[in-house]
Amino acid sequence: MKPLLMVKKQGVYGSLQDQGRYGYRAYGIPLSGPMDKVSFQAAQYILNNDKNQTSCELFIGGFEFEALNVGTYVLTGAKSECCVNDTPVEMWKSFQLAQGDKLTIKNVSAGSIVYLTPKGGFQTAQILASSSCFPLGSIGEIVRRGSILYGQGTESSESMPFTRGLYAPFRPTFKNAITVSVFKGPHFDLFTEESQQQLLQGSFQFTGGNRMGYYLKGPVLQLKEKKDILSEATQFGTIQVPQNGEPIILMADAQTVGGYPIIATVHEDDLHKIAQMRVFNTVKFALMEG
Asked: Which one, of 197, 278, 212, lies nearest residue 249 by Cα?
């Protein structure tokens, strides 16, 4: 392995993520992996990486890195002000860093998560066949001030003969108000008819959260009668409703089993939209049949 970057300033939260840790949910270990798979996979495509290479997932911005070696990188995801040695660099296009260069990822103006990816991916120890960070399980690497991020120690990982990127029409856009598709959950019919309608007709505001869950505020969703619910398997996108009636969308690091009623599940194709929400953004749910 070759040292690529040193973290000089730490923003809100950063971690290393590959596609995820498959095959261990039965043991209580979540999938983890990227919150926004669309932006993550676009980075691998742009750099012609293997689809399961490891990226650095950064929330909100505020990070600064120093290049310890030459390398080729791309920034994808949330719209952010990014600079190399104080000169703006375009996201969604590959760029070069030379030894000693300073890369800063400043304020994020649309969306919430940025992916920093080198040619060949970051290299870190695999645990249970994955490099994805899962802090609650003491698995993987959190990006902290002073951390050194490593890459492949081969010439092919250092540079590309030409710039690659995505044209603007093919890049995701990040909106303050989104609509996502959902399936009925196993407890949908336990909610009052009014609550079912409110879920599908109302608007919910994102009030905060992390890689475990996003909290929403809007119409209060109520069961027809208070009753104990047997714990059920959950997944990335499960919408649970605790006793206060305000929904929680479970995210990539969420528990694998939960005891709150599950009113719906977000379609996997729309999970990246949920992941990129910012505080005070709103979401509406559209029911998919079948």
From this structure: 212
Provide the whole-model pTM.
Answer: 0.96
How far is Cα 49 from Cα 116, in angstroms, rounded to an integer?
13
* Residues constituting the chain: 290
Residue with tokens 């027809």: 224
DSSP conformation letters of 163-224: --B--GGGS----SEEEEEEEE-TTGGGB-HHHHHHHHHS-EEEEEE-SSEEEEESSPP-BS
Residues 6+ apart with CB under 8 A from 93: 46, 74, 163, 164, 165, 166
Given phi > 0 = left and psi -120 to 50 = alpha, else beta, which region is 280?
left
Structural domains present in the chain:
2-170 (no CATH), 177-287 (2.40.100.10)
C-beta of residue 180 within 8 angstroms of C-beta of residue 276: no
pLDDT of 123-175, one tens digit each?
999 999 999 999 999 999 999 999 999 998 766 556 677 899 999 999 999 99
Phi-psi region of 26 (alpha: psi -120 to 50; beta: other; left: phi over 0): alpha
Q: What span, in angstroms and rounded, lies between the C-alpha atoms of 271 and 57? A: 16
Task: Give per-residue pLDDT as tens, 210-265.
Answer: 999 999 999 999 999 987 788 899 999 999 999 999 999 999 999 999 999 999 99
CB 53 within 8 A of CB 41: no
Give the C-alpha separation, 125 to 137, whole Å.
15
